[in-house]
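Service request form, structural biology core

Requester: graduate student, group of Dr. S.
Request type: structure prediction, single chain
Budget code: on file
Notes: please return the result as structure tokens.

Sequence provided:
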Amino acid sequence: MKIMKKIKRIKDIDKLMVGFLMVLLGVLLQSYGNYIEVQRHVIEKEQQQLLTISKSISKSIELYFDYEVEKIKGMPKNISFRHEFNEYLKSDEEIKEFYSIDDYYMMRENEIEEIQVINNDFDIIKTYPTNKENLNTNIKRELYKVMARKTAFIGSEYMKDGNFYVRLYEPVLHESKVKLILSVEISLDKIYKKFVKPVKAGEKGYASVKNQNGVLLMHPKREDIGREVIKARKDEFPDYDWSELESIVEKQKKGESGVGIYHSIWYHDKEKNRIKKYSAYSPARIGDGFWIINLSMDYLEVSDFLSKKTYKNNVFSFVILLIFISFMIYIYKIKNDKKQLKIQADLSTQLNSLNKELEKDIEKRKLLEKELIKNKEKYESLFNSASDCIFVLNLDNEGLTTEFLEVNDKACTSLGYDKKQFSKMSYLDISNEGSDEKFMSMLQLLKQKRNIIFEDTLVTKDNGHIPVEISAHLFKLGNEYKIILNSRDMTNKKVQREALKRSEKRFRNIINKVATGIYDEDKDIFKENENPREFSSEEENKNRMALELEKINIELEKMFEKEVNENRRKEALMVYQSRLAAMGEMIGNIAHQWRQPLSGLGLIISNIEDAYYYNDLDEKSIRELSERGKKLILRMNQTIDDFRYFFNPKTEKITFSLKENIKNTIDFLQEHLRLHGINLTIDAKEDGMIDGHSNQYSQVIFNIVINSIDALVENRKEDRNINIEVYSEDNNHVVEIKDNGYGIQEDLLDKVFEAHFTKKNENKGTGLGLYMSKVIIEKNFNGKIKLFNIKEGLCVKITVPKSGVEDNE
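Core staff response, request fulfilled:
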């Protein structure tokens, strides 16, 4: 019996061993199959990961160029640049200094190589940081495209000094014509170091960039930059088969994205072993073309790693299996109750392990929740602490605004609604001027530009009105479009505008309030004798006649003296009225000249407030903003000094320069001339010195130029010109002021110097300007003034004696 049990036990052991071998074989086969499947799966995952990285780099480069294009687009809108551009146009396009461009380069010198200002004849006006005189042929071709398109343009890459560069172009328009082109040069080497070089694909892998023609633009091996990738490989290794790589490159040239496997050589491998690689590629759309972002990785890095891991797993599995079989033999020898106990112990161990994993997951979730709460609080703090009203709008399927998605605390405070009330309202509920049509028009504009600025009036809860300037931005949240509105209160700005308008209107009213006549009693100097009687003798009749004539002469002298005094009073009144008219024109010009520096000061104050709020206010920024503010204030102060010079009440005569006097007077009218598009030139063949009151002569020049401006504005829509010529003629200095305002009628030429004669509307002129100019020149300067028609315009000729000469004869 014992022998039978022993035999049975041996047979059971044999069966167990056979089962062990079969299980071992099955495990090995299964492991190999798993290895093949895992290898395929891992390779696919690695390829997809490389493709994702490639697309990420492509997107980063595209966004980088979009950002640079937006930056250069903003330059023509810069206030300083617009001022310099206008000065450039006024100077017959001869000014070659653009300090705002210099400032732009200094702020972005780490991102760009240089910035050039090019005129429409393709001449380089200025290059920052260094001057260059000529343009290469490739850049000229791109400039023709800019002239044709009249929009920002990204050029093609080009090689210079062993490196590739690309240029961004932005046209500067005047009256729909390209006057200047801003050209920014960007180094591809900087783009490579910033976006491409940091990316690693395994231990040997790298990222590279080629253009749509397959020419390498960015590569770790600098010797290959500028070469066509297939040609470079074939030239270096002509005996190798490059068909796999050629197939991939052909797909890349078509602008496709994808993955591929091919055989190649690592550039840094000294032994030049041919190995298997896999790569991922995607296009980056740059300007009119595209670049190919390629990532390559060693195939063996993954397969060798999997082989080693599989080998270790198989050994480990074999050991585990051996232990398991030994354990089974041991279990076979013990009682069934111990088997049950072992099973329970295993279950308990697994449960503890699961509990630990669950605790770790719970801890991670708590940390994530804390981070989310922290980010939410940070967002709400930034959103609600803004000094402007911020609204986030929902849009329905038709693109119309629905209820507010979010508003900040400033919006609630300013308009008087709480956030719960806002959640049931739309933007049209608080817009005084809004409508569905206007909103749809705004949305279409936003879809084109993404950012727009407009003015509106918001209605508060208590029916108050707040004029605002709104910056709108369209963005996507998920798959839905949203609009964010940043609203800034313009009440103070409106008040300033109205104050300027009222001031200008008040001074014009002063001009028009002039005495229209002087009252004088009628006197009868031939008084009848109260006691008439007959004179019998001829002698008595003669005496009577002599007495009556003497009385008449005395009365005539009194009337003559009164008339002279009256004429002097009228003349003084006319002088006063003329000066008031000139002062009114001058105040209008001062208002125009002050508007730009006042806006600049307002912007500086806003920048200081924003910098203080966001803790960006440091000594350097304070110093820069202060210097800019001082320059603007100096400019305003200079305007007031010039104004005081013009109306200086000094009575003593001085010897002064004609050229300097005319230039100082015209400086007051520069803003007036610019607003009406008038080109004024001063042609002083020689300077002249004359004796008299310089401010009176300035008033004459001022009156005549103002008349020319009014004539040009009324009669010409474009090509408005005024020319002032200064020259000598015998013992006189002559100033001729010519315009192309089509002149005046011949029958009116003799009347223009009469008092109160004017061709302007009643509220635009007093008719004293030319009359007083004639009085000043003839009486105070002993000169002559006359006017006559010329081709397409009028000429006013002023002749005064040179300094030290008594008259102009």
